[in-house]
Fold this sequence. Notes:
This protein has helices spanning 2-22, 25-33, 37-50, 55-71, 75-88, 101-117, 127-134, 139-148, 154-159, 162-195, 199-237, and strands spanning 243-244, 247-248, 263-264, 267-268. With 270 residues, the chain is mainly α. The chain folds into two domains: 2-117, Serine Threonine Protein Phosphatase 5, Tetratricopeptide repeat, CATH 1.25.40; 134-242. The protein has a two-stranded antiparallel sheet. A two-stranded antiparallel ribbon has the order 2-3. The termini are far apart. The model is unreliable at 5-9, 11-21, 128-135 and 243-270 (pLDDT under 50).
Amino acid sequence: MIKNYFLVISFLFCASFSFAQEVTFDNVKKQYESFQYDNVIKLSDQLIMNGSLSDSLKIELYLMRANIFYSKDDDPSTRSSFEEILKLQKKYVPDPSNFSPKLISIFNEVKTEYLRKNPDIVQRPDSTQLKQEIKFGDPLVMRNARIQSILPGLGHLYLGYKTRGWIESAVSIANLGALVYFYLDSNKKEKDYLNESDQSLIQQKYDDYNKSYKTRNILIILYAVHLIYSQIDLTFFSNQPPVSISLHETPNLTSPVSMNDIELKFSIHL
């Protein structure tokens, strides 16, 4: 009896865990597109409580909820959903092509009232932007950059070093293109030299082959040096964002902003 009891408990636990794992934004969106509005409200509640979504996905969820509540004539819940959006992004403007004029009008009313009641709120950055800012300290990201730098320059572009990345990519592509050309050219001239039977042309064929062979080897060495340099540069000198900006301003967004209230700091790595 006790054994059966534990089996039932284990089954229910696994079932509930499996159900929780299936609750994703894509799942909710599919339910919304299938007009399963009750399921959308239920699943979106779970996603929002989970707290793992980025601000942009939360906004999409609240827009779905607002549309659903509006279709049910639930004006308070519609307005509450719009207010949650403004808490995430107070300058948000909905796309008129996706919502009825009446719904847009309600949103504008909520926005006007929200800004009137909260004039001093400073917009916090989207969580997706925060993830982008801290990626330079992520060992996995740096590893991916080094892997991409098998073609020097791609790793720098991946980390946002556009100028240096494009320069290194152009140099490495030119080097690699020349290397491939002289590799094929040296093989061809080697065959021509080995197959030459005319004594008066053997030395000339050998000289042509030797010149192409040496050029190929020099290009191999240059590419290897460039590759090593790129890896060293990524490892020791590319751990910070290419441009870092810090902005401090007075919290009251309704009052005029003077130049003394703003401090900009640029750190640019080429």
